[in-house]
Write a structure and sequence with these properties.
- The protein has about 260 residues and is α/β, with parallel strands linked by helices.
- The protein has one domain: 2-Layer Sandwich (Nucleotidyltransferase, domain 5), CATH 3.30.420.10.
- It contains ten helices and nine strands.
- Helix 1 packs across helix 8, helix 1 crosses helix 10 and helix 9 crosses helix 10.
Length: about 260
């Protein structure tokens, strides 16, 4: 894509990014990304687990934190506040391998979660629950030994649910990741770069853009040049969100007012 286009839409996005000044593009950075082409054709709704929102569980925690904060120094309280803010927004990305007939179905092989500043909070390979027909290594970066020594699916699934509880989830084509994990997340707490209409309109004329294309257009980064890496892909999605977060949140507020 020609990122130097002077179209009105591109200028509008550029103006937004300059105004936000979240971070400068790094055209020399080469990162890996994740396999978003694996379609989830056998999504099992009956096994879906809903990640609880913060509203139902935060009252007791808030009271306890208030008591603890009363005895903290100002600098300690500030550090705690900054950490909480970093971890309020989490980006997730998964890698899949092929199972079923001709390896056409996707099965979770790796899941990575980073916080708002790109720190890795979780990065685990998952043991296969079905015979793997296609490791999709050229895209997924997954090899037999990676998942043979991985953790049990249920263990990882529970860790992800706990980590995402009450958080805003950022990612690209998150429907595929959530389906692979067999979990749900509140729609109001999802920021999916593949379906944010203003961005799709500017970058891909309203069509669903790839994360690779978005990273180049918004960040000036070239990703997914070899075997993909879910940590780097999650970081790319979070960086895109950070760059246009103010406009994105205003867009959502405006939509909520009209519904």
């Amino acid at each position: 894509m020609n990122t130097n286009s002077n179209s009105p839409g591109q200028r509008k996005l550029q103006t937004s990014m300059e105004r936000l000044q979240v971070q400068q593009p790094n055209v020399n950075r080469r990162a890996a990304g994740s396999n978003w082409q694996a379609a989830m054709s056998n999504e099992n709704h009956n096994q879906a687990i809903t990640a609880p929102t913060a509203d139902a569980s935060s009252a007791t925690t808030t009271t306890r934190e208030t008591d603890e904060n009363a005895t903290m120094t100002k600098s300690a309280r500030n550090r705690l506040k900054r950490k909480a803010q970093r971890n309020r927004y989490l980006a997730m990305d998964c890698e899949m391998v092929g199972v079923g007939h001709n390896g056409q179905d996707a099965m979770l092989a790796r899941v990575s979660i980073v916080n708002k500043v790109g720190e890795v909070l979780l990065d685990k390979h998952v043991k296969p629950r079905q015979p793997v027909i296609d490791y999709r290594t050229s895209v997924s970066g997954i090899r037999p030994e990676d998942i043979e020594h991985g953790e049990e699916f249920k263990v990882v699934q529970e860790e992800v649910v706990k980590l995402l509880q009450g958080k805003v989830l950022v990612g690209h084509a998150l429907r595929n990741d959530l389906a692979a994990l067999g979990i749900k997340h509140p729609k109001a707490h999802i920021r999916d770069t593949s379906v944010y209409k203003p961005l799709c309109k500017v970058v891909s004329n309203g069509h669903t853009p790839s994360l690779k294309r978005l990273a180049m257009a918004v960040l000036g980064q070239e990703i997914q040049t070899g075997e993909h890496n879910s940590v780097e892909d999650a970081r790319a999605a979070m960086s895109i969100y950070n760059r246009i977060a103010a406009d994105w949140e205003k867009y959502l507020e405006k939509r909520q007012k009209h519904h």
